[in-house]
């Protein structure tokens, strides 16, 4: 059975959604990042990057959420566009766009808005600007297409859902008004039974909620280690 190392954060939740959509049996193993469990040697042997999610499937170890989505899609033959260079090009481009742009910029926007010990206007504006720009690109795409790639719901939509559900945390409460097409997709996915099952799976485990010194030491190591 697939072992799924997770928390309730955006990147693991994309994978929880895909596992539920595929109906694959899996063993969910919570990694409480606010308690520092991502740094335990046994977890680092699975994901040397000390982040969730990761999966272990027999002798295959896969980390990084979008790599896992692609792995599971190839394994099951589900939620992929039809064969052909054109759809494959679109799939890879949009999957990497979410992995290298939407996720990191959203994460930094949430960080500088909500968690950084100082309010740095330059950093907040830079990351909010880039996050908004990325969501604008997704919104335009979804103005022309029902789903991100091809005519059917697939892994890029799941990758988008993981982050876009949390747009207000990255861009403020009113931000949804700017992205009606994206909101349509997020609402449609959130209403799917697999999304409800993924959320219920996450809610079964009591992850630490306080953001205290233990959490800061586990997740914001840069506060304690000067590089420059
Ligand atoms: N590129 C990785 C990023 C994973 C990532 O940043 N995970 C976050 C949760 S969304 C995490 O584990 N944070 C804990 C930490 O930074 O210590 C992916 O897509 O899986």
Overview of the molecule:
This protein has 228 residues and is α+β, with helices and mostly antiparallel strands. It has ten helices and four strands, in the order E-H-E-H-E-E-H-H-H-H-H-H-H-H. Strands 2-1-3-4 form a four-stranded mixed β-sheet, with helices on one face. The longest helix is centred in the middle third of the chain and has 31 residues. The termini are far apart. 33% of the residues are buried. Bound molecules: glutathione. The site of glutathione has 15 residues, from helix 1, helix 3, helix 4 and helix 10.
Structural class: alpha+beta
For the biggest sheet, the summary is: 4 strands, mixed
Strand fraction equals 5-15%
What Rg, in angstroms, do the CA atoms define? 18 Å
Shape: globular
In this entry the ligands are: glutathione
DSSP strand tally:
4
| Order of neighbouring strands in the sheet with most strands | 2-1-3-4
What is the residue-mean pLDDT, rounded to a whole number?
96
Question: Which oligomeric form is depicted?
Answer: single chain
Q: Which range best describes the helical content: under 10%, 10-25%, 25-40%, 40-55%, 55-70% or over 70%?
A: 55-70%
Compressed to H and E, one letter per element, the order equals EHEHEEHHHHHHHH
What are the SSEs and their pairings?
Blueprint: E1 2-6, H1 10-22, E2 26-30, H2 41-44, E3 54-57, E4 60-63, H3 65-76, H4 85-115, H5 121-144, H6 155-164, H7 167-171, H8 180-190, H9 193-204, H10 213-219
Parallel strand pairs: 1-2
Antiparallel strand pairs: 1-3, 3-4
Helix pairs in contact: 1-3, 1-6, 1-9, 4-5, 4-6, 5-8, 6-8
């Amino acid at each position: 059975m697939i072992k799924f190392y997770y928390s309730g954060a955006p990147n693991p939740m994309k994978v929880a959604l895909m596992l539920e959509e595929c109906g694959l049996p899996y063993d969910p193993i919570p990694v409480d990042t606010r308690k520092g469990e991502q740094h335990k040697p046994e977890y680092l042997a699975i994901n040397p990057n000390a982040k969730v999610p990761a999966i272990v499937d027999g002798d295959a170890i896969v980390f990084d959420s979008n790599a896992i989505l692609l792995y599971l899609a190839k394994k099951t033959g589900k939620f992929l566009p039809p064969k052909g260079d054109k759809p494959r090009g679109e799939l890879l481009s949009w999957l990497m766009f979410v992995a290298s742009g939407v996720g990191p910029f959203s994460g930094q926007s949430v960080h500088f808005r909500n968690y950084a010990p100082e309010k740095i206007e330059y950093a907040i504006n830079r990351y909010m600007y880039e996050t908004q720009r990325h969501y604008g690109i997704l919104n335009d795409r979804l103005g022309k297409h029902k789903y991100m790639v091809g005519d059917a719901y697939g892994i890029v939509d799941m990758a988008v859902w993981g982050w876009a559900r949390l747009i207000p945390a990255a861009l403020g409460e009113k931000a949804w008004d700017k992205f009606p097409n994206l909101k349509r997709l997020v609402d449609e996915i959130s209403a799917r039974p697999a999304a409800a099952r993924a959320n219920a799976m996450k809610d079964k485990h009591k992850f630490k909620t306080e953001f205290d010194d233990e959490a800061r030491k586990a997740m914001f190591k840069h506060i304690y280690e000067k590089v420059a």
